[in-house]
Amino acid sequence: MSKPAASRRGAAVPFRKRAAPAARQLPAMRRALLAWFVEHQRDLPWRRDRTAYRVWICEIMAQQTRIETLVPYFERFVERFPDVRSLAGAPLDDVLALWSGLGYYSRARHLHAAARQVAEQYNGVMPVRADDLIRLPGVGRYTAHAIASIAGGEAAAVLDGNVMRVLTRLFDLDGDIASAAMRGSLWALAAELLDRRSPGAWNEAMMELGATVCTPRQPDCGDCPLRKWCAALASETVEERPVKSAARAPKLVRMTAGLIRRQDQVLLIRNQPGGLFGGLWTPPFELIEITRRGGNGAAMLVHPLFRREGLGELMGKFEHVLTHRRMQVEVRAMTPPDQDSGSPDDRRWVRPSSDLNSIGVSTLTRKILRVLDIHSHAEGEQPDLFAD
Prior knowledge:
Layout: H1 26-40, H2 52-62, H3 67-80, H4 84-88, H5 92-99, H6 106-121, H7 130-133, H8 141-152, H9 161-170, H10 180-193, H11 199-212, H12 231-235, E1 251-259, E2 261-262, E3 265-270, E4 281-282, E5 285-290, E6 296-302, E7 311-321, E8 325-334, E9 347-350, H13 363-378
Parallel strand pairs: 1-8
Antiparallel strand pairs: 1-5, 2-3, 3-4, 3-9, 5-6, 7-8
Helix pairs in contact: 1-11, 2-3, 2-8, 8-11, 9-11
């Protein structure tokens, strides 16, 4: 294998395909990886019963979430909703409550909508063909292929972050994985390598290899079952793969949350479906984007009950970081409006010490209510308004 020219990070350089395993080597590669997977795969709850429903729940939860984090969420979720019909028949509030703390709440809303679609169109039986799965809300090409191959045995390749890393190192590719052209090439390579006799096991093995051995930093090349075929290892470019353009800096957002209190209760409002905090319960708030020059931009989102003239004492400040936003949060006491418009079904007085686990609230809302707990404790009031 020839040494590659040094790649220029961030430059618009077409990717080059290095010396790759020849077709005659593929059977040996597949045997090596599948044998490794049988011996080294992690004991994860969805692998104990690989039904389409369980694989679907796992794959949706795994988006933007570490496996160690999602395992307890998965176990609680499938215990409460063991099949499509139970999920479809549940109120969205119940689904969001179980999702609280996992983030990216549009995933939960899509799960609920997709379950209802499956209940109506497939008589409650989760489809296992990729062409059917991709029509469901929140299911893209990767998720459809993962479910179809693992639960249905369909010869459909997958491409996620772990598989991209394995492929760019195996073939020593220096193209930017954020580009559409590179993604298309990687999908083609994934399909080329796919073991069509055991597509589900092969896909899981590729993902497992990227997650546990071919890791982003300090990969364990000595224990990799594909090391003898790895072009990047031979070229000493493992640490340079994959090439990825720098991510955009998160937007700076200033948030003011207004706490309306009644004895030991706080008024929370259910947000409209869709968008930021869609379907979740929050205090009334205002979001303002901060411009690059340091000034305030236009208000991004203002809750109907939020009134600047009703703001009172500053109770606390903190910073909360999301994937695309860095939020500077200010928590203030707020007096209720003289006239409360809106549906009473979207208003709820809650006791932070006992009611939060039964409704859908974000980690951000929990942090806001923790400010209330700390503030009340400092004033000598009841200290246990918020309990973990």
